Amino acid sequence: MELFGTTNLPYGVYSVDGGAPRCATRLGDQVVDLADLLGDDVFALPTLDAFLAQGRGRWDEVRAGLRARLADGVPAGTTAHPVDAVRMHLPFTVADYVDFYASEHHASNLGRLFRPDNPNPLLPNWKHLPVSYTGRAGSVVVSGTDVVRPSGQRAPATTDGSAPVPTFGPSTRLDIEAELGFVVGVGNPMGTPIEAADAEEHLFGVVLFNDWSARDIQAWEYVPLGPHLGKSFASTISPWVVPLAALDAARVDTPVQDPAVLPYLSLGTDRAPWGLDIDLEVELNGEVVSRPPYASMYWSPAQMLAHLTVNGAPTRTGDLFASGTISGPGKDQVGSLIERGEGFLEDGDEVVLRAAAPGPDGTRIGFGECRGRIVTSRQLDNRKAQQ
Questions:
Q1: Of the residues 89, 105, 106, 202, which is catalytic?
Q2: If you count Cβ atoms within 10 Å of the first and of the last residue's Cβ in the chain, which end, N or C, has fewer?
């Protein structure tokens, strides 16, 4: 089934034969130059930043224009290229990056692994607020970028009651986290929180997101302040940003939130928190190993954005927040290898995330690929020397 029809029309940035990057949309297997199609120089720029900053009214206007212009295919004379003939780039400048922990199944699975003696796998705050940490915007990379196995301190297990003495070296427990990322188009001034009910005025679109995780480094460093070097070495996003407007038919209610949330996390008395019916698949070395369902996520993207700003923190164009690992109730629905209990990533392993969602009138909305291969620093140096 077609995943990139006129009900989708995602946004990305491409180049051909080493030329300057330009903004594009995708129709079928064609990458269509937006500046040429629409006659708007904002799309001749090397990122989507300026367009994102124009706001909801402009986003809706451009989307309507795209659907009208492309209703009968790519107009004659418009610059377009086969998708396999272009290089895709990071579509926007990542201003800040926050990662949430919004899956009850994932949080419970890890709680049982890390706190086996605790009858409640969830920590006391988990159902009261969307737990998160602030990551490194500079290490967010586009699909297809090699991921260098990180090194750091690791604590070996001790059996004699002595204090662990850390060692240093490459991570031996390198993992993935299959997530969605949400792109802020228009931010909020410092001191002025975004209401959960108003999140859609600020959220532009959605990308696939792989939050690579070095579990051994993370386990030693995360007490008391949380993830750092075990996460900050790389996070991969898909090159196409699917507009939130393309996902109206994928809206679903989140699971029932019990206990009731505090008022700032409510979307109002007549609106349930909304989630998205997006089915992901995780492919490892050519084999699909899991199909995580985003519809199972406990916290809504609107609630995540409201929580992110409730203390007065500002957001900016290009801010990115991720959902946290998406896991369903079954072993074949988990979004990380640690939950599968079948080993971690080896050098040379390649992970590909894909996803699709329902569109209007029985159509499907595709997200493209979020692809990354694990290499050593020496392998990366060799590849650069050959280019």
A1: 106
A2: C
